[in-house]
Design brief:
- It contains twelve helices and 14 strands.
- By secondary structure, it is of the alpha/beta class.
- A hairpin with a 2-residue loop joins β11 and β12.
- The longest helix has 15 residues.
- The radius of gyration is 19 Å and the shape is globular.
- The chain starts with a strand and ends in a 7-residue tail after the last helix.
- Bound molecules: ligand FO1.
- Ligand FO1 binds next to α2 and α6.
Length: 313
C-alpha cells in the first residue's frame, strides 16, 4: 500500500464513505480530504456545512448511516420545540448536531477561518485525517429550476429535488481562493494519489473545481489522479444524480461522468459492466464499487490505491 500522501476530493455521502475507506487502509495522517462548501448555508442563525460535517462524522465513525447525513446517537428536542413554536423545521437538525453548528458559528464570528474551525472539530472528534474546506470563502450553489432559482438546500431538502433542474451556478466561486492548506496538500512532493470520490460531479465536485487554480493544480499533479464513478449501470448509487444528469441532458452513464472529468484524471474506476468505453488518456478499471458497509469502504479504497503502485495511468 502506498506510503505517500493521498488527497481525496469529496462531497456528500459517497465521498465521505470512500474517505472513510481510505482512512482504513492508509495511516490517517497520510490522508487529506478536500471538501465541497457549495452546500453550506446560514440557517436559524447558524453556519451549516453539510459536506464537511458528513465527512467529519463518517471519519469519526459517528455518522447516521441510514440517513447519510447528521450523526448517530442523536435526539430531537430542539427541533420538536422549534416546530411547536412555528419555527422553520424543514432542515432536520438534531440536538447534538446543533451544538456543533453553534460552536462553529461562534468560532467564525470570533474571526477563525473555516479551515481553523474545521480543524478544531476534527480534533474534538479524534479525526486524524486532515479535513480541509476547499476554500474559506463563501460559495453558494444556486439551482435554476422550473420554479425559479433556489438556494441549494431549498432545492435539495425543502423541495426534495422535485422541481426540474435547468442549471447550476456556484455563486462566489470565481472570487473564492483555494486555502493555503489546500494548495500545500496538492503540491506536496510526497503526494502519491489524488482521488475524486464518488460524489455528485455537478453538486459536490464541480464547486471545488470551479475555484480558480483548482483545475490547474490538478493538471500539474504528476501522481495518478483517480475518479470513482457514482453511477452503476445507469443508476446513481445515492441521491438525485440520475435525475440531475438527465435534466442536464447528459446520458446517465459512468462514461458521461468520466468525460466530465476529461483532462483532470488518469484513471476511472467503475463497475465492470460500465467499463465499455474508451477515453484517450484515461485508463478504465472495472471492479465492484458499491460500498455497502465499512468493510466495503476499505475494500474499494484498497482497490483504488492498488492502482497507484502501478504508476500513472
Ligand atoms: N438532507 C436531507 O435530505 N434532509 C435533511 O433534513 C437534512 C438535514 C441535514 C442536517 C445537517 C447536515 O449536515 C446535513 C443535512 N442534510 C439533510 C444533508 C444535506 O442537506 C445534503 O445531503 C448535502 O448538502 C448534500 O451533499
Amino acid at each position: 500500500m502506498t506510503r505517500g500522501k493521498v488527497v481525496a476530493l469529496c462531497g456528500g455521502v459517497g465521498g465521505a464513505r470512500l474517505a472513510h475507506g481510505l482512512a482504513q487502509v492508509i495511516a490517517p495522517e497520510q490522508l487529506t480530504a478536500i471538501v465541497n462548501v457549495g452546500d453550506d448555508f446560514t440557517h436559524l442563525g447558524m453556519r451549516i456545512c453539510p459536506d464537511l460535517d458528513t465527512v467529519l462524522y463518517t471519519l469519526a465513525g459517528r455518522e447516521n448511516s441510514e440517513a447519510g447525513w447528521g450523526r448517530s446517537d442523536e435526539s430531537w428536542a430542539f427541533l420538536e420545540t422549534l416546530e411547536q413554536l412555528g419555527g422553520d423545521a424543514w432542515f432536520r437538525l438534531g440536538d447534538r448536531d446543533t451544538a456543533l453548528h453553534i460552536w462553529r458559528t461562534e468560532r467564525l464570528r470570533e474571526g477563525l477561518r473555516l479551515t481553523e474551525a474545521t480543524s478544531g472539530l476534527a480534533a474534538a472528534f479524534g479525526v486524524k485525517a486532515r479535513l480541509l474546506p476547499a476554500t474559506d470563502d463563501t460559495i453558494a450553489t444556486l439551482c435554476a429550476t422550473s420554479e425559479g432559482v433556489l438556494p441549494f438546500q431549498e432545492y435539495f431538502v425543502r423541495r426534495r429535488c422535485e422541481p426540474t433542474l435547468k442549471g447550476l451556478t456556484y455563486s462566489g466561486a470565481e472570487q473564492a481562493q483555494l486555502t493555503p492548506e489546500v494548495r500545500t496538500a496538492l503540491a506536496d512532493p510526497h503526494l502519491s494519489a489524488v482521488v475524486l470520490c464518488p460524489s455528485n460531479p455537478y453538486l459536490s465536485i464541480e464547486p471545488i473545481l470551479a475555484i480558480p487554480g483548482m483545475r490547474e493544480a490538478l493538471r500539474a499533479i504528476s501522481c495518478p489522479r483517480i475518479a470513482v464513478s457514482p453511477i452503476i449501470g445507469g443508476r446513481a448509487v445515492k441521491g438525485p444524480l440520475a435525475k440531475i444528469m438527465s435534466e442536464y441532458g447528459q446520458d446517465v452513464t459512468a462514461e458521461a461522468v468520466a468525460r466530465h472529468y476529461a483532462g483532470l484524471i488518469d484513471l476511472f474506476v467503475c463497475d465492470p459492466a460500465d467499463a465499455d468505453f474508451r477515453m484517450s488518456g484515461v485508463a478504465l478499471h472495472g471492479c465492484d464499487i458499491m460500498m455497502r458497509d465499512a468493510v466495503g469502504r476499505g475494500r474499494l479504497a484498497r482497490e483504488v490505491l492498488s492502482l497507484v503502485s502501478g504508476g500513472r495511468g
